[in-house]
Batch of 3 targets.
Target 1
Amino acid sequence: MQEKIDQVIEVLQQAVRGYSPVCFANSLGAEDMVLTDIIAKLPLPNPLPQAGEGANDTLRESLHSIEMFSLDTGRLPQPTYDLIQEVGERYSVPLKVYFPDSDAVERYVAQNGVNGFYGSVDARKSCCFVRKVEPLRRALRGKKAWVTGLRRDQAVTRGSLEVSAYDADFGLQKFNPLLEWSNKDVWAYIRQNNVPYNKLHDQFYPSLGCAPCTRSITPGEDIRAGRWWWENPEDKECGLHVAKPTLLKRA
Ligand code: SF4
C-alpha cells in the first residue's frame, strides 16, 4: 500500500511542479476521499522556505497549493451534504463548493421539467451540462492542471485513460493518480486511515451522483450500474470526463 501511496504523491508532485496552479476536483466519492486524505496529510516543505530566491519554487512544489473543490448540483443526496460538512470540519485543506448558474437551471427546468433528465439521453446530458459541466469550467478557469480520482476499471468509458494527459475539452493537463488502483485498494486505504466517506456506500451505492440519477445495486452488478441505470453503459458519463462535451440545449 505504501508503494501505491508514494506513486500517488509522485504524480501529484509532477502536477504541481509542471502545471501550477493545480486544482483537485473532489467528487466526494470513495476514491476522492482517499486523495483528500493523502493531500491533507502531506507534510509542508521542511525546512519551510524563507523569503527570497527559490522560496516561490519550493512553495509552488508544495502539494498544499492544490486547490480542492466540489460541485453542488442542487440534487445531491443528504449523506453527500453531510460528507461535505465533515470534510470541512476534519481537514485543514479548504473545500470550495461551486453551484450551477441559477438562470441556466431555471431555463432548463422551464424547457424540460424539473425531472426532465429521465426523458432522453440528450435531456439528461443537458441537465448534467447545466449542473456540472458549466460550474466545472468556472472552477477550472485559470488553472493549468486538474486532478481527479478516476480509476480505469470503474467503467467501460474509462479503459483508455492515462495517468497524465492533455484534456483538450477543458484546455489543461489532467492527472488521474489513482488510475491503476482497484476498488479493494481504495477501501483498504479508507479503513486503515479512518477516512470519512459517504454513508450511502454502506447501502450498496458504490458510485454516487445526484439523488434522482443514482440507485443502489445488487451483488454482482457492475459498480456503476446504479448511475443513470436506464441508459446504455457507453452513454454513462456526465460530460466531466468524456472526449467531447455535450452541447446544451438552450431554452
Ligand atoms: S446526474 Fe441527473 S440530476 Fe445530476 S446533473 Fe446529471 S441529469 Fe441532472
Target 2
Amino acid sequence: MFDKDNLEALELLIDTYNDTDQDTLVLIGKYYLKLDKVIRTRIDKISEKEISLIISLEDKEIHKKIKFPKTVDGASAVSTFLYSYLSEARINAPKDYPKTRLEKLIENTLNLETYITNVKTKKIISSNIIEITFEGGLENLPDLKNDAFMYFMVHKEIDHKFPKNFTIQNFRSLSSQENNPYSAAYYTIKSYRENEIDVWFVLHDHPGPLAIWADQVKEGSSVAIWGPRTVFSPPKETNNYLFIADETAQPAVLSAIENLHKNHSYTCLFETQNKSSRFKINDPNNQISWIYRDQELAGEGTELIKCIERLNLNSKNLYVFGAGEAKQISSIRKILKRQFNLGTKQMSFTGYWRKLAN
Ligand SMILES: Cc1cc2nc3c(=O)[nH]c(=O)nc-3n(C[C@H](O)[C@H](O)[C@H](O)COP(=O)(O)OP(=O)(O)OC[C@H]3O[C@@H](n4cnc5c(N)ncnc54)[C@H](O)[C@@H]3O)c2cc1C
C-alpha cells in the first residue's frame, strides 16, 4: 500500500497527466500499446503493480492495464516508468509525429547548465523570508523572467567551495550514496541583474537542509545552481490573471506581475502566517489580498480555500497561476476547475513543497 504522502503525490500526478499531458498519454496509447484510432487516454488509477488506463477510440472506450516491471513505492517511480513508456512509444512513432509537451520539457532540461555562484548579501524581507543576493559565475545565465526557477545544490559544510567544474551530474552521481554531503531544492529567481540574482528563502518549521543553509550561510559562501526553467505560460489571448501563492511562490508571482502588459488586470491571493510575515510591497491599486493562517500551520491554512470558494471570476481570457503546498494546491485546483470551468491551458498549478508528517 502507498503511504498517505505518496497517495497524494500520485493523485496530483494522475490529474496532471490527464489534464496537461493528454498528448503524451495519446502517444503512449498509439505507439506503446499499439492501438489504432486513439482519441483520448486517461489514467484511471495507479497501484503498486500497474497503471489502469481508459482509452477512447473512434468507436468505443476500452480499459487497458500496463504492468510495471517491478513493484513501485511512489510517484517518482511511477514517473520513471511513464517516461520509459513514452520513449518506447517515440521509437515506434512515425518520424513526423509532433513532440509532446513533456518531451519538449525533457529536451529543454538536457541543455541546462550548472552555475557556481557566491552569496553577496543577505537581507530580512519578513519574519519568515530572507533574501539572498548571489553574484558571479552567472554571465551565461539566461533571463527567463516570470517564475524562472533553479535547482539549488548546497553542501552540509556551509563554507564548502564547489570546484569550478562541478555539475548536476556530480550531484546526481552522489545522490544514492549514504552520507552524501549535498542536498538540493528548487528556488525562484525573484530578480535578475547582470551576473547577479536575488532569491527569497522561506524559513520554516522543521527546516530541511536548504532552509538551514539559507539561514546560516555567510557572505562569500558558494552554491551550485542548475536551470533555469519556467512553467508560467498564459495563452496569447490572456488579459486577466489570478495568482495564488503561499510564501514559497510569492517571489515567482512578484516577478511575473512585473512583466504583465500595462492594460492587463490581475489579482493576487497571498497566503502568509500573520502580519509579521507580510512584507512591504508597492500595491497602489490593492491588487494583492493577504490571507493569514494565524494559528494554523503552513500547508494547513483553511482561510485561503474559503477565499477561493467565495471568488467571483470571469473566466474569459483568464489565466490562473497557483503554487504552494502540494495538497493545498491540488484542492484549490479542483475547486477552480469545478466552479469556473477553466480550460487546461488557462491553469498552471504546481506543488512547490510537500507537508510531511514530522
Ligand atoms: C519550482 C519551485 C520553485 C520554488 N521556489 C521557492 C522560492 O523561491 N522560495 C522558497 O522558499 N521555496 C521555494 N520552493 C519550495 C522549496 O523548494 C521547498 O520548500 C523545499 O522543500 C525546501 O527545502 P528544505 O531543505 O528547506 O526542506 P525539506 O528537507 O524539503 O523539508 C523539511 C521539512 O520542512 C517542511 N517544509 C518544506 N518547505 C516548507 C515551507 N515552505 N513551509 C513549511 N514547511 C516546509 C517539509 O514538509 C518537511 O517537513 C520552490 C519549489 C519549486 C518546485
Target 3
Amino acid sequence: MEELKKKIELKNKKIWIAGKTGMVGQAILRQLIKKNYNIKLLDSKTLDLRRQKDVEAWMEKNKPDIVFLAAAKVGGILANDKYPVNFIEDNLLISLNVIRSSYLNKVEKLIYLGSSCIYPTNIKNPITEDLILNGSLEPTNQWYALAKISGMKICEAYRKQFGCNFITLLPSNLYGPGDNFHKQNSHVPAALIDRFHFAKEKQEKTVLVWGSGKPLREFLFVDDMAEACIFLAESYNSNEPINVGTGKEISIKEFAQLIKKTTSYKGKIIFDKTKPDGIYRKLLNVKKINKLGWIAKTTIEIGLKKYYKWYLDNLDKIRR
Ligand SMILES: NC(=O)c1ccc[n+]([C@@H]2O[C@H](COP(=O)([O-])OP(=O)(O)OC[C@H]3O[C@@H](n4cnc5c(N)ncnc54)[C@H](OP(=O)(O)O)[C@@H]3O)[C@@H](O)[C@H]2O)c1
C-alpha cells in the first residue's frame, strides 16, 4: 500500500518519450519543458519499436529511468478497417518490446497510453474503469483495441510478477497541436477542422458532416492530456487503469457548429444521414482522476481556438 502512495520525482531523471514526434508525445515534451525540470531527454529517432533486438539494444545503452509509451499505430475507422494486420501487429509489438525491455533495464516507472477505444460497446455511461472486457468490442477497431488491451495487461502482469511500477492511462478522444490530418488516419476533430477550413477558403456553400449529428462525444485537449500524464507519472502507482477525460460530452452537431464558428466558415452544415453514426454515446467517468486532484482545464471553445491557430500556423507542415 505504501508503495502505491509513493511520489515519483521526475526532476533529474532520464526520460524517454517513445512516440515523441506524435501528437501526445509532443505535448508531453511541451509540458516537461514548461515544468522546467532538470531532466535528460533521450532520443530514439530512427528506432523502429517493432524490432525487439533494436529496442533492447537501445534500452540497454540508454537506460531511461522513466518511460512514457506514447508510440502506437493510430488511425481512424477507415484505416482500422483497411489495415487490421498493422493495427494489431504493430501495436502488440511496440507494447511488448518497450514494456519488456523496460523491465529488463529496471525502468523506475512506465506510463502506458491505452485508449477509451478499448471499452466494449453497449456499456453504461459514463464509463468506469471496471468495465474493460465486460462485453464485445466495436468491430471496426477491434484489432487496435485488442492490442491496446494486451499492452495494458502486459503492464499488469509485470507488476504482479516482478513488482514493476507500470501504469495504464485511458484517454478519451484527443485533439490539439501535432494532430494528424491524413485522409485515412485522422480523427473527427482533424477531419472537421480541415473540411471547414478549406470550405471557407474555396467559398463553398455547404459542408457535409457524416451521420445524423446526434451522437455524443468527449474531446480532451492534448495539452491537458499531457499534464495528466505527468501528474499520474508522479502520483499514481496502481495496476488499475485510470480514465483521463473532461467528463463532459458534446453532440457531433454542436461540435461541428463550434468548428464552423472557430474557422469563421459562413456556409451551411449538411448532415449526411446515409452515413453511419457509430456508437451513440461514449463518455468516460473521470471521478477517479478528479479525486486524485486532476481536472481538465481547457474548455472546448478555448481548445478549438488554440487548435485552429496551430493549424493555420503550420498548414504547410502538418501531417497529411
Ligand atoms: N489521438 C487520440 O485521439 C488518442 C486517443 C486515445 C489514446 N491515444 C493514445 O495515445 C498514444 C499516442 O497517440 P497520438 O495521437 O499521439 O498518435 P500519433 O500522433 O499518430 O503518434 C504516434 C507516435 O508513435 C510513433 N510510432 C508509430 N509506430 C512506430 C514504430 N513502429 N516505431 C517507432 N515509433 C512509432 C510515431 O512515430 P513516427 O512519427 O516516426 O511515425 C509517433 O511518434 C497512442 O498510444 C494512442 O493509442 C490517442
